[in-house]
Design brief:
Elements: H1 2-11, H2 13-33, H3 40-47, H4 51-58, H5 61-68, H6 75-83, H7 90-102, H8 109-120, H9 122-144, H10 149-169, H11 180-196
Length: 204
């Protein structure tokens, strides 16, 4: 009986160790190859497991990235919530929601660490840029933008990443301690224009 009990005890850490191996492989893959070039199959191969097991644990590449980067929310749910209301006010909702998340003590520390790393590490910058474009702003622009969604997502992303760097990493005086409502009032109209307004001198 004791042998049976020991066998059961020995089997319990299996899924935990497997999940950990997948996350380790995913972190390494995202860090070296960015977001777009990483696949579930590639992570499974590096972790020494079947791709079906990665899908069973994490579901999708987006969810695998969320787990590997220890993000507190999945971008899909975040984007769906933003798009649930009218396009008018999208910029305000986006900036306000991001500031609320970023200002939550400890909640977004891993994501801010990723932004910090992107400042002087090209691999981290590529991973962050591709993730934001593919899974966050790309989805928003695809649903809300009247034209040129990829370009709109890129310029909106530059503004949002710049805001995060200036407020939380570089801590620019005035911005670092500014009231979130003031930041929303100043930045949101620009994000709204980037996402839904006219682009270029001819409005195209």
């Amino acid at each position: 009986m004791s042998g049976t009990g020991q066998n059961r005890t020995g089997r319990r850490p299996g899924p935990t160790r497997t999940r950990g191996a997948i996350l380790d492989a995913a972190r390494a893959a995202f860090a070296t190859r960015g977001y777009d070039a990483v696949s579930i199959r590639g992570v499974a191969r590096e972790a020494g497991v079947d791709p079906a097991l990665v899908h069973r644990f994490f579901g999708s590449k987006e969810q695998l990235f969320v787990a590997a980067m220890q993000l507190p929310i999945a971008p899909g749910a975040f984007v769906d919530a933003l798009l649930a209301e009218e396009v008018d006010g999208l910029g305000e909702r986006l900036v306000r929601t991001l500031l609320t998340l970023w200002d939550t003590p400890g909640a977004f520390a891993p994501f801010l660490a990723l932004i910090r790393g992107a400042v002087d590490n090209e691999a981290a910058a590529t991973m962050l840029r591709e993730f934001l474009t593919s899974e966050v702003l790309g989805r928003i622009a695809a649903a809300a933008a009247p034209d040129r969604p990829e370009f709109r997502a890129s310029i909106a992303g530059s503004q949002i990443v710049g805001l995060a760097v200036a407020r939380y990493i570089v801590r620019v005086p005035g911005l670092a301690l500014a009231d979130p409502a003031d930041i929303v009032a100043a930045v949101a109209p620009t994000i709204q224009r980037y996402l839904t307004g006219p682009l270029g001198s001819d409005g195209a």
